[in-house]
Design a protein that fits this description.
By secondary structure, the chain is α/β, with parallel strands linked by helices. The protein folds into 3 domains: 83 residues, Arc Repressor Mutant, subunit A (Orthogonal Bundle); 102 residues, Periplasmic binding protein-like II (D-Maltodextrin-Binding Protein, domain 2, 3-Layer(aba) Sandwich), CATH 3.40.190.10; 100 residues, Periplasmic binding protein-like II (D-Maltodextrin-Binding Protein, domain 2, 3-Layer(aba) Sandwich). A 5-stranded mixed beta sheet has the order 2-1-3-10-4, with helices on both faces. It has a 5-stranded mixed beta sheet with strand order 7-6-8-5-9, with helices on both faces. The longest helix is centred in the N-terminal third of the chain and has 28 residues.
Length: 305
């Protein structure tokens, strides 16, 4: 029978945190122990594994602290901690249903999360996901004051330093206009071609609105905003009714405009892509149920690229 090396979760956790924080001081602050306590855990771990996992140097660190062996060990260490967490909660998971509360923007609920949650429920029938519709600003505010919300899914413009952002996917911007609109056939479409047209944009305070306005102002232009709304589906219907044209982020699948009598034209890199991802309270460890949903969401959202 092969010899099994005995590893402590405290030792492995200190190593994983070192990969994230970069310094022993950062690890000590995160784990609420002394720097010497961190150092002792790491030394014990190296002795168990009989390899050097990180570089011992004092003063400001300007390079990755992990050695080549440390980088090889890192994904296994993360998996080790996750498996240990699952073992602790295995009986709870079997005996009772878990519910996690997720706040998300309406756009992402409609076009990403409904299908993702449906498939997640099929894969994890004992975990229920409760979705709440919020604006980007409300998601950030509620995450910081409401412990019942475990994570947010949004496109933050500038997230709070108390929150951690984990990227899922990005979307480019497109002009949508009634069919046969001359701009849809224009050989080269520039923002200046849109300044005299009635634009339908997202309301003030939204990330999407800010991206569009920044692009116009960056080009020395002022858009003519005719109407505003928070709902992309309403924007599409307004354009379909001939009330104006709009600039919106679109999924590559075409799901946003499918079934509507509108035309689309990509604006390429003229407007900064809108990045969507998960917002978490910084330093908070997720439950097994929440981590399972986050791990499931990443490949699901990867399909949007």
């Amino acid at each position: 029978m092969p010899t099994v090396v005995s590893l402590s979760t405290d030792q492995v956790a200190a190593f994983v945190e070192l990969s994230r924080q970069g310094t022993l001081r950062g690890v000590a602050s995160m784990l609420h122990i002394t720097e010497q306590g961190v150092r002792n855990r790491l030394i014990s771990l190296e002795r168990r594994l009989k390899v050097q996992l990180y570089r011992k140097q004092r003063g400001p660190r300007r390079v990755q602290p992990l050695t080549e062996n440390g980088r090889r060990f890192l994904p296994h260490a993360v998996a080790f901690l996750e498996r240990a967490r699952q073992l602790v909660e295995v009986f709870d998971a079997a005996d009772e249903a878990h519910e996690i509360h997720v706040a998300a923007t309406q756009y992402l609920i409609l076009y990403v999360l409904i299908d993702a949650v449906r498939r997640f429920h099929a894969a994890y029938p004992h975990i229920r996901v409760r979705l709440s519709n919020r604006t980007e600003q409300e998601i950030e505010t509620d995450l910081l004051r409401d412990p019942d919300i475990v994570l947010g899914v949004a496109a933050p413009y500038e997230s709070s330093p108390e929150l951690e952002y984990r990227h899922l996917f990005s979307m480019d911007w497109s002009l949508i206009a009634p069919p046969h609109h001359p701009l849809l056939r224009k050989k080269t479409l520039e923002l200046r071609h849109l300044t005299d047209l009635p634009l339908i944009l997202f309301e003030r305070g939204s990330t999407g609105r800010q991206h569009v306005i920044d692009a116009f102002h960056g080009a020395g232009l002022s858009p003519r905003v005719e109407m505003e709304t928070t709902n992309t589906e309403i924007i599409v219907r307004m354009v379909e009714a001939g009330l104006g044209v709009s600039i919106v982020p679109l999924m590559p699948s075409g799901v946003v405009t499918r079934g509507h009598r509108v035309g689309c034209r990509s604006l390429g890199e003229r407007i900064r892509p809108i990045h969507s991802g998960v917002l978490l309270r910084r330093g908070e460890r997720l439950s097994t149920a929440s981590q399972a949903f986050l791990d499931f969401l990443r490949p699901e959202c990867g399909k949007q690229r």
